[in-house]
Design a protein that fits this description.
Rossmann fold, flat, 10 strands, 5-stranded parallel beta sheet, alpha/beta, 4 domains
Length: 528
């Protein structure tokens, strides 16, 4: 009979732990892992200690973050007090506390599959270690070196897109951030996808034939490097290597989905702010469709679902008297002490799998494993639809502001010599400042869910204002051309307009398809 395992780790190594847990599951081991085993609605600290009590062997993932973590320290100290078997999984070689130096260990810094096989052998037959666990030595997986090399080449190429500002800002330090595991996957992905286009635009913006040839060549040459790096960053090895922010959006594995239990009706109550009424109604309708009963107050319910958002951070329901499920729709640093002690359901990436919640409501101990939601670290957590909308507005601002830099440089001699250009250039600067201000406030309001941009009408007006500014810039360009006597329209006024029209069309289609996500995110209007 295989032993029961408890996995102790730091959230910074969640990519490694997630894949490692899947490997254990495939080998038939039973394990306790917080974000797959905790029961929502109950205090998490007591459950962790119970998981340690029920485990035969403790697997401690050793890293700088885990050894420095007070929570992890409390876990292994409790294990030592119970005299349980401990196996150290060396993710990073660090100075170990004296109490841990005597335990068995497996080095996962090298070949991952070999380390898994070695651990499997040790779990079956304990081995007396001949040597102490490594406490120094920096090792990087071969796949990380490949990513570092590719990113170094791309970092040099990104210098040709300096006018975009954000592309070189993200890509130039990428080799170092890959080694330190600290890059932001979504920002890097967006920058890589935009790099060939930005380099192509650089060739169009220049009037120098040599610069044109170099930029155009870089644009074509960057494509295979971009594709290769994207594939490497998405590989299993890099997903184990990176910190949470360096991991691609989670695609959960449902191959080991637990079986649904027999349905038992549960009386539930949804505690929510008026602004979250849309989500509350959807949850209630789903639960009632599966036979659960909605009641009108928390005291007469068996399960209370408290929707946490920027509009609500506490509840009058008491977890000691009933099942209290904090449902995190939006990060809120002002979460009450009571709710911070209770395991929550994380719906920040979108309200999904309500059917699974409804089916496991009578057996909540299976809920987290059914939802397959892993910790997200320090990265900004938003529904995918909202995140893409923010990225589009930010990218539009970068293209429509940054593309005017080469334009100003091109006409700089004329600006110095011709006073008639003072007025149109001041108008251009004013339009660019307005574009940046409107874009900034639109994205901030969408993220915080507060402000006129967080509505279909407000969002539409904001996008029309940005379009009007682009049209004004086209008129400014026409007046400059008249003053300097040029015949051709400037590229800086050509591309932003087409990018705005084409990008907005694609975004409108996408948002229409995903309109349910926006409707949940936009605050509900007050009744009456």
């Amino acid at each position: 009979m295989k032993p029961n395992l408890f996995i102790s780790y730091s959230r910074r190594e969640v990519g490694f732990v997630d894949d490692f847990a899947n490997q254990l599951e495939q080998k038939g081991y039973n394990y306790w892992l917080d974000y797959r085993s905790l029961v929502p609605g109950k205090p998490w600290e007591e459950q962790i200690y119970q998981g340690i009590m029920n485990a035969d062997i403790i697997l401690l993932v050793v890293s700088n973050a885990s050894i420095a973590s007070e929570n992890v320290r409390m876990e292994w100290k409790r294990v030592i007090g119970q005299k349980k078997r401990v196996i150290l999984l060396i993710f990073e070689a660090v100075d170990l506390p004296v109490e841990l130096e005597k335990y068995e260990w497996v080095d996962f810094r090298g070949n991952y599959n070999n380390a898994l096989n070695e651990l499997d052998r040790q779990l079956q037959i304990p081995e007396q270690e001949k040597y102490p666990a490594p406490q120094m030595g920096f090792r990087i997986p071969p796949i990380a070196w490949v990513a570092c090399g590719l990113s170094a080449v791309i970092a040099l190429m990104s210098l040709g897109a300096l006018w975009t500002l954000f592309i070189p800002f993200i890509l130039i330090p990428l080799p170092f951030r890959i080694i330190s595991r600290s890059f932001h996957y979504l920002l890097v992905e967006a920058s890589l996808i935009m790099l060939p286009l930005a380099l192509y635009l650089t060739s169009d913006f220049t009037v120098d034939a040599d610069v044109y040839d170099i930029a155009l060549g870089l644009s074509m040459a960057s494509i295979p490097f971009v594709i290769a790096l994207l594939l490497v960053l998405r590989s299993a090895g890099m997903q184990r290597w990176g910190k949470p922010e360096a991991l691609r959006p989670y695609a959960p594995d449902h191959s080991h989905m637990p079986e649904y239990p027999p349905l038992k009706p549960v009386a539930f109550f949804i505690d929510h702010a008026p602004q979250d009424r849309t989500v509350a109604l959807e949850i209630a309708e789903t639960f009632k469709a599966h036979g659960h009963l909605e009641v009108k107050d928390a005291t007469s319910s068996k399960a209370v679902f408290m929707l946490v958002s920027t509009f609500k951070a506490d509840t009058e329901a008491d977890w000691s008297k009933q099942m209290l499920y904090p449902v995190i729709l939006q990060s809120n640093e002002k979460l009450s002490r009571q709710l911070s002690r209770v395991q929550w359901l994380d719906f920040r990436m979108g309200v999904k799998k309500l059917d699974s919640v409804a089916k496991f409501l009578c057996e909540p101990e299976m809920l987290l494993r059914a939802l397959c939601i892993r910790p997200t670290g320090s990265q900004m957590v938003l529904p995918t639809t909202v995140l893409y909308l923010i990225y589009f507005i930010a990218l539009l601002a970068v293209i429509c502001i940054g593309s005017w830099f080469p334009y100003v440089i091109q006409y700089l001699p004329d600006i110095v010599e011709n006073p008639d250009l003072d007025v149109p250039m001041m108008q251009l600067v004013t339009s660019l400042i307005l574009f940046g201000v409107i874009s900034f406030f639109m994205t901030r309001q969408i993220i915080t869910r507060k402000g006129p941009a967080v509505s279909f009408i407000g969002l539409t007006i904001g996008m029309l204002l940005l379009g009007a500014l682009i049209y004004w810039q086209v008129l400014i360009d026409a007046s400059v051309l008249d003053i300097v006597g040029a015949d051709d329209r400037g590229y800086s006024s050509f591309y932003p307009g087409y990018f705005y029209m084409f990008g907005s069309l694609v975004m409108v289609i996408y948002l229409f398809i995903k309109r349910a996500d926006l409707r949940r995110w936009f605050p509900a209007k007050s009744k009456g």
